[in-house]
Amino acid sequence: MSQVENNGITRFHVGERLSESAVFNGVVYLAGMVPEAGDTDIEGQTRDVLNQIEQRLREAGSDKSRLLRVQIYLSNIDDIQAMNTVWDAWVTPGNTPPRATVEARLANPNYKIEVVATAAVNP
Q: Model pTM?
């Protein structure tokens, strides 16, 4: 894992085009997380993306109970019920974040979901 600190900002998994996350002033900002595991259905892709989010939050000193905002992009809004089934089992009861879910054309036609999240870092 590459980690760079500059001007009070810590970036993780730094690449030429983007960093997968950045921490500033007690808040961690995640890039859009897309499926990596090769699952083809929305449930598998959602589990994959949510697992990546947990990993990135952990690296930054946070966890899913500290989510401040989540934006979910679905390539087909008809998948929302199946996605919500996985989401509901994953999210921390009593700590559900503000969330938006929209249909969008994603960068890779095999992606069914992309998720952007922001969370508070653990004190």
A: 0.94
